[in-house]
Amino acid sequence: MMVTQVYAQEAAAPAVEHVDAAPGAADIHADPTADTHATTEAHGGEHDSGVFPPFDPATFPSQLLWLAITFGLLYVLMSKVALPRIGSILENRKSIVDADLAAADASRQKTDAAIAAYEAALADARSKAQGIANETREKIQADLAAKRSAVETDLTAKVTEAETRIAATKRDALTHVDEIATETAQTVVGQIIGDVSADSVRAAVAKASKE
């Protein structure tokens, strides 16, 4: 019985030691990077100076180096790629603008030539129209003058003929008047004093006409 109790105590002692060691082992397996974090925090605490990294004098050499490298790459990129393309675009635009200006100048010259030709044709047409008008007016005036002369000649001839007829009619009328006066006087005298000769009555009428 006593042997059994001693054996039980000896068997329980390693179990307790194993249980005491287990929490430490569990801690080691739970956070395997604990030592690494502790080391990093220790080194960070040593180098942390509280200055913004670009303004830290300790980083100036590396910053200058990367600035030179970046500037060189940017210069090569601009000089080899961007600037030639920009120059080509500008040259193309310049050639297009020059071509457009040349076409506009040619169109302006053609327009000026067309306007000059139109003005010359218009002046020629006006001159021809003025000449035709003058010629037509001269022809009309000559025709009117000829017709007026013909009418005046005809009227003169007709007036002369009418005057000749009037003169002849007047002479005939005067002749008949003397005869009528002689016959009338002979009749009246015959009724008053009797028969008288026609010659004496005609002589008396002629004498009275002259007076």
Give a structural overview:
- By secondary structure, this protein is mostly helical.
- It has helices spanning 2-30, 34-47, 60-193, 198-210.
Strand content: under 5%
What low-confidence regions span 5 or more consecutive residues with pLDDT below 50?
A: 1-47
Q: Got a strand count?
A: 0
What's the tally of helices? 4
Radius of gyration using CA atoms only: 78 Å
Instruction: Determine the structural class based on helices, strands and strand pairing.
Output: mainly alpha
Overall mean pLDDT? 75
| SSE pattern, N- to C-terminal | HHHH
* Distance N to C terminus: 231 Å
Q: What overall geometry do the principal axes of the alpha carbons give?
A: rod-shaped
Helix fraction? over 70%
Main β-sheet, in a few words?
A: none
Short description:
This protein has 211 residues and is mainly alpha-helical. It has helices at 2-30, 34-47, 60-193, 198-210.
Keyphrases for this structure?
disordered N terminus; 4 helices; mainly alpha; 211 residues
SSE layout:
Elements: H1 2-30, H2 34-47, H3 60-193, H4 198-210
Helix pairs in contact: 3-4
